[in-house]
Amino acid sequence: MKIKQIVLAWLMISCRESTRLSEIKLSLGINSWLQFKLSLHQRLCVYCKYYENQSLLIDQALARQDAPVIFKLDDASKEKIKNLLVTKGK
Amino acid sequence: MNPIESQQLQVLLEAHGDALYNYARLKTGDATVAADLVQDTFEAAIKGFAKFRGESKGRTWLFSILRNKIMDYYKANYRRQALETELEADLDAYFTVDGGWKSAPLNDVPASSEALLDQPEFLKVLYACLDKLPLLWKSVLESKYLLNKETSLLCQDLQLTQTNYWQINRRAKLAMQQCLQFNWFK
Predict the structure, then answer these.
(1) ipTM
(2) d(CA B180, CA B173)
(3) What ranges do the domains of chain A cover?
(4) Based on the domain organization, do B106 and B132 belong to the same domain?
(5) B29: which of A26, B131, B133, B179 fits an S-S bond (Cβ 3.0–4.6 Å)?
(6) What tens digit of pLDDT does each residue of A64-79 get?
């Protein structure tokens, strides 16, 4: 019984640790042992899996440079930059 | 800068001005700041045109200048908040003493979640959530995409220890996820 508890403690990570590993995994990658512990935890804790899925989605959104254009540069600002370019080009 | 170079930049302004502004507006959440950053970008482009020489695409080049300008803007503005927000960055609000979730916090994203990235309405909500974060947290989330550097170098830039960096990263993600949960995935 005691050995079982020790093995479980060795294998299992907390939700707090799971979210930390998820972030490191998404940014830098983690080794296969940590990946195993994380996957095991996520099979038992759906919220930690949801955390990682949402975190990945946020990262993908923030990484995009070619997001759909929602906001456009107003004409006055564009004209101001144009004038600057014309002045510097003389 | 000669008139031909000036004309080339004017062409780039016409072609990519809106995309640059859109990017800056999403990242800063402020129309005036975004317009100023686009202007700063072109001022830097005027000075650095000799370096450009068409080695990369004009759009890529202008975006790389703009990303640095946005990061400079973050850094200039978050220092005042830094200490306070570092202290707030603990995760105890979300986790119990033994590290479990305090309450069932999140729903899953839909299977087709990548399609969300093309939906302006979703992006508006996401960036509105981002705008609610303290600037230091926002900087931590954005910096890796704006500066494209390793974490250790980002920490130097942001003047954070790696422990604080990851703690703030998670705290910011949790705040973003709760905001998205409430405003989109409900």
Answers:
(1) 0.78
(2) 10
(3) 2-88
(4) yes
(5) B131
(6) 877 788 888 999 999 9
Write out the residue range of the structural domain in which residue B31 sits: 3-77
pTM: 0.78
**A17-43: per-residue pLDDT in tens?**
999 999 999 988 999 999 999 999 999
Q: Residue B83: inside a domain, yes or no?
A: no
Chain A residues in contact with B107 by the CB 8 A cut-off are 50
**Chain A partners of B109 at a C-beta cutoff of 8 Å?**
50, 53-54, 57
Interval B74-128: pLDDT, tens: 888 776 455 555 555 567 788 888 888 887 767 788 777 888 888 889 988 999 9
Closest-CA residue of A relative to B124 is A70
How many CA atoms lie within 13 Å of B113's alpha carbon, on the beta-carbon side? 19
The two structure tokens encoding residue B12:
């780039």
Do residues A33 and B151 touch, judged by C-beta distance below 8 A?
A: no
In a mutational test of the A interface, the residue from B9, B32, B138 whose CB has the highest number of chain A CBs within 10 Å is B9
Asked if A65 has any chain B CB less than 8 Å from its own CB, the reply is: yes
Taking contacts as CB-CB distances below 8 angstroms, the residues of chain A near B48 are none
**What are residue B95's DSSP bridge partners?**
B101
Q: What average pLDDT is seen over chain B?
A: 84
CB atoms within 10 A of CB A86: 14
Cβ contact B167:B141 at 8 Å: no
Residue A74 touches partner B, C-beta closer than 8 Å:
yes
